[in-house]
TrEMBL record, chain A:
Signal peptide: none annotated. One of its GO terms (biological process) is pyrroloquinoline quinone biosynthetic process. InterPro entries: PQQD, PqqD_bac, PqqD_sf. The keyword tRNA processing does not apply. Gene3D superfamilies: Coenzyme PQQ synthesis protein D (PqqD). This is Coenzyme PQQ synthesis protein D. Monomer. Interacts with PqqE. Keywords: PQQ biosynthesis. Pathway: Cofactor biosynthesis; pyrroloquinoline quinone biosynthesis. The keyword Cell membrane does not apply. One of its GO terms (molecular function) is quinone binding.
Automatic annotation (TrEMBL), chain B:
It is an enzyme of class 1 (oxidoreductase). The keyword S-adenosyl-L-methionine applies. Its cofactor is [4Fe-4S] cluster. The lineage of its organism: Bacteria, Pseudomonadati, Pseudomonadota, Alphaproteobacteria, Acetobacterales. Interacts with PqqD. The interaction is necessary for activity of PqqE. Gene3D superfamilies: Aldolase class I. It comes from Acetobacter oeni. This is PqqA peptide cyclase. The gene is pqqE.
């Protein structure tokens, strides 16, 4: 499954999962069936760009600019993280 | 009170909202208390609105609407909508027997996030034996179909015990056929109704081991396609199961009449006042009430827990199980082999009685099985 993750793909949150700001604890959480996971700051940056329309490539461009980091490092991390969340049914593919 | 923790508590993550004890089914392992609340005492819609607002402000992230059968409350879609407006993740824990296309549509429109549907068995006869309701299985299957057709994630929950544990492989087949995203296979917990019927429900060791193999096979077969939760019966373990993240640390439970409890079984504890949302704000109850502070953290622990390296892993096990089996809520959970109380658990494993008491509003249907629970 991970092999399918290319920059052309467009992730979206699966029905019943979402990224949410936890105001009380001042953190981001992923809400999912029967559990809430803590989203670390990097995951939160990536997942805030998941809207069901933006491709991974465009997300990576945006992150590389925002964090002034080498694009290939960002690309590797984002593809791995998004692939993992798709495996765990948090994200699905729109394209 | 001596030994009560004074450390500040983190806010709760999760609210179990028991909307009603009314239910068309009569499962003999129901987690509701033995004394069921009648409809007349239930919190009003306005009360629940306030509770949901307070829960979100306090830090609750997920609300589980439960019962009894929560769909017996006509205002359920309004409660879901209120929770959603507060940013709460909404989960419906239902038997499915009151669900039809129109009622699911109302819940979906209100923003319901997830449904957990309980099954008593894989086929009609086994399900009717446990649930005590003819035709329930067909209604549940229809409910699952409706939820999946709506696109909402679905969890199937199977409580397993001596009479159905051998059908775990077929439970996974059913879950797959219905399109469930998650499956919970939970061995019966022996408090309340389950304890009363323990002699008829407790699986044998061979059955337990087979269930572990069956679940391992299913994990292999489904990989990440299906999330699988497996709850083992702790009687066969050497150490107790952790009290869910520790008493008064993550979970808050509200009963149909508004009593606020650290866990669904806490009302069995005597000599303490159970605070009510009718009288105080949820945050005040969570932070300051005696029942929440009583077993919070580790300061309250007697030996052997106090000096045990597992005390922040299992939190001394289940307070309600300690109370039910040893008569003392502050004792170590008697499942633990490091305590003398373990003898009562070993004695239970030797039981073999097969009659059981159906959950019901009166006591008239309780059979003689209730003399064997050691709670006298
Ligand atoms: S006291 Fe027992 S029943 Fe209550 S939350 Fe802890 S483990 Fe669960
Ligand atoms: S002694 Fe107490 S803390 Fe240690 S394993 Fe037993 S129940 Fe858990």
């Amino acid at each position: 499954m991970m092999a399918d993750v290319t920059e052309a793909r467009v992730p979206a949150f699966a029905r019943g999962t979402r990224l949410q700001r936890d105001q009380v604890r001042d953190q981001w959480v992923i809400q999912a069936p029967e559990r809430a996971f803590l989203a670390d700051p990097v995951a939160a940056e990536v997942l805030q760009r998941v809207d069901g329309e933006t491709s991974l490539g465009v997300m990576i461009d945006g992150l590389a600019t925002a964090f002034e980091a080498p694009r290939e490092v960002i690309a590797r991390d984002v593809l791995a993280m998004v692939g993992d969340l798709a495996d765990r049914q948090v994200l699905v593919w729109k394209a | 009170m001596e030994g009560v923790s004074s450390s500040p508590s983190p806010p709760p993550m999760s609210l179990l909202a028991e909307l009603t004890h009314r239910c068309p089914l009569q499962c003999p392992y129901c987690s509701n208390p033995l004394a069921l609340e009648p409809k007349t005492g239930e919190l009003s819609t306005e009360d629940w609105f306030r509770v949901l607002d307070e829960a979100a402000a306090l830090g609750v992230l997920q609300v589980h609407f439960s019962g009894g059968e929560p769909m017996a409350r006509k205002d359920l879609p309004d409660l879901v909508r209120r929770a959603v407006r507060n940013g709460l993740y909404t989960n419906l824990i239902t038997s499915g027997v009151l669900m039809d296309a129109a009622s699911l549509e109302r819940l979906s429109a209100a923003g319901l996030d997830h449904v957990q549907l309980s099954f008593q068995d894989v086929d009609e006869d086994g399900a009717a034996l446990i649930g005590g309701m003819k035709g329930a299985q067909a209604k549940k299957i229809e409910a699952a179909r409706l939820v999946v057709a709506d696109g909402m994630p679905l969890t199937l929950n199977f409580v397993v015990h001596r009479l159905n544990v051998e059908r775990i492989p077929r439970m996974f087949d059913l879950a797959e056929a219905l399109g469930a995203r998650r499956v919970e296979i939970a061995h019966t917990q022996y408090y309340g109704w389950g304890l009363k019927n323990r002699a008829a429900l407790l699986p044998t060791r061979a059955q337990l081991e087979q269930s572990e193999r069956d679940v391992a096979v299913a994990r292999e077969r489904f990989g990440t396609r299906m999330a699988i939760d497996f709850v083992t019966p702790d009687y066969y373990a050497d150490e107790p199961k952790p009290c869910m993240g520790g008493w008064g640390q993550r979970f808050v439970n509200i009963t149909p009449v508004g009593r606020v409890l650290p866990c669904h079984a806490a009302e069995t504890i005597s000599g303490v006042v159970f605070p009510s949302v009718r009288e105080a704000a949820l945050g005040t109850i969570w932070n300051d009430s005696e029942i929440f502070r009583m077993f919070r953290g580790t300061d309250w622990m007697p030996e052997p827990c106090r000096s045990c390296d597992r005390k922040e892993i299992d939190w001394g096990g289940c307070r309600c199980q300690a109370l039910a089996l040893t008569g003392r809520a502050e004792a170590a959970d008697p499942v633990c082999r490091r305590t003398a109380g373990r003898a009562v658990v070993d004695a239970a494993l030797r039981e073999s009685d097969k009659t059981f008491a159906y959950r019901s509003y009166g006591c008239e249907r309780l059979s003689s099985a209730d003399t064997s629970d050691g709670s006298t």
